[in-house]
Amino acid sequence: NSSVAVNITTNATLNLTNVSIQSTISWDIFVVENSSVVALNVSGLTRSKINVSRGNSDDLSNLTLQWFLNVNATDGSSALSNANITVLSNETGSLNTIAFNGTTGSNGLTGWVVITEGVAKWNYNPGNLNFTPHNVTGNYSGGKNDTLSFINESKYVVLLIIVPDLVQTVTLNAPIANYRNSSGRPIINITFNCSASDTCNNPGIANIS
Q1: CA separation (Å) from 147 to 64, 70, 113, 134, 193?
Q2: pLDDT in tens for each of the 209 residues of the chain?
Q3: Are strands 113-120 and 62-74 parallel, antiparallel or unpaired?
Q4: C-alpha–C-alpha distance, residues 62 and 32, integer Å
Q5: In whole angstroms, what separates CA 19 from the centre of its chain?
Q6: How large is the C-alpha radius of gyration of the chain?
Q7: Where does residue 41 fall: left (phi above 0), alpha (psi -120 to 50 degrees), or beta otherwise?
Q8: How many alpha carbons fall within 13 Å on the CB side of residue 163?
Q9: Taking CA 85 as the corner, what is the angle to CA 81 and CA 86, rounded to the nearest 5 degrees?
Q10: Are the beta carbons of 117 and 130 closer than 8 angstroms?
């Protein structure tokens, strides 16, 4: 029940990670006089209780609000290993800034990565942390899916990626079409040897003959 939970002034820099704000009377975070705060996974934070002030017109005080994100790529029944995951933010007003690009592990997860919700400056209001919603896109073996997610807390995002069936084409290089042997007779019986390997979790290889 203190008046201010975090009070940063006079050219100070503070990194807050994995902390919880319980209860405040006035401000959860107060930043002023060219000070800077990076708040990563700070729970219990009330947006309307963020105050980034400026003591004068040259005051560059700011608060960067960040969260952990873990993306799970799946085909609905199995984890997709080595799926490419891209997270885009709208730092410039459109979804074209890469916040993360990487691949999933054998469990289909990216692991926890840091994503910025936004940066609050002296003219902050609760609605202008506008790096989010983020676009989360997954690509795997010809399959693709994406979703918009508000990264305003640490979270999992599940991407269902449907892998298309792969159609294989077999071309007969020899003998050529309408080929006849030395006796002038057409070749009737041709034997093919066919083999294939499955590099996808789903669907498996089927109907090879």
Answers
A1: 24, 14, 17, 8, 44
A2: 478 899 988 889 999 999 999 888 899 999 988 999 999 999 999 988 988 887 777 888 899 999 999 999 999 999 999 999 999 998 888 889 999 999 999 999 999 999 999 988 876 665 556 788 999 999 999 999 999 999 999 999 999 999 887 555 566 666 666 666 666 666 656 655 555 555 544 445 555 55
A3: antiparallel
A4: 8
A5: 24
A6: 28
A7: left
A8: 22
A9: 170
A10: no
Token couple for 44: 């219990």
> Do 120 and 129 form a contact (C-beta atoms < 8 A)?
yes
Pull the structure tokens for residue 103: 């691949």
DSSP 65-98: EEEEEEEEEE-SSSB-TT-EEEEEE-TTSSS-EE
What is the number of residues in the chain? 209
The contacts of residue 62 (CB under 8 Å, 6+ apart) are 31, 36, 37, 52, 119, 120, 121
DSSP designation for 158:
E
What pLDDT is stored for residue 89 in this prediction?
95
Structural tokens at position 176: 């050529």
